[in-house]
Design a protein that fits this description.
Blueprint: H1 2-24, H2 34-41, H3 53-73, H4 83-109, H5 122-140
Helix pairs in contact: 1-3, 1-5, 3-4, 4-5
């Protein structure tokens, strides 16, 4: 069961990484133009520009490395790291996703951004991050 859970986690991380690579090369899905992409994904105000390509590629690299760490943790990939480091890495992934999920939920409920500007997917994105956090934490122990 753990290998299936970690396999799904890896698939999700690599899928999100692929979308960031797509955005880095100028893709605008799920928006229609760069400004609607920024508004939909980030939840920024009208006219906001999307992040630069280097930021998209940096996030994609970080997510791909996280997926590699998950694969190494379950023994599918061999990395020259002690098992304790992989365990701590999985715990760190859990904390990062949990903070992103909780922070996204709190930010969606308060802050200087007007209600009509907030992305309708922000709460769903925060929920997904909390689920990813739980999956990483389960793998951690």
């Amino acid at each position: 069961m753990e290998i299936i859970s970690m396999g799904l986690l890896t698939l999700v991380l690599l899928s999100i990484s692929s979308v960031h690579v797509y955005w880095g090369f100028g893709g605008v899905w799920p928006g229609k133009d760069p400004q609607s992409l920024a508004r939909t994904v980030v939840g920024g105000p009208v006219g906001m520009s999307p992040p630069p390509a280097w930021a998209c590629f940096g996030v994609a690299l970080a997510l791909a490395l996280a997926a590699g760490m998950v694969l190494a943790f379950v023994g599918v990939l061999t990395l020259p790291l002690p098992t304790g480091w992989l365990r701590w890495g999985m715990g760190a992934l859990a904390v990062v996703f949990l903070l992103g999920g909780v922070g996204g939920t709190l930010w969606n409920g308060c802050g200087p951004v007007r209600r009509e500007v907030r992305s309708c997917g922000s709460t769903n994105k925060s929920t997904r991050r909390c689920v990813l956090s739980w999956d990483c934490w389960r793998g951690h122990w």
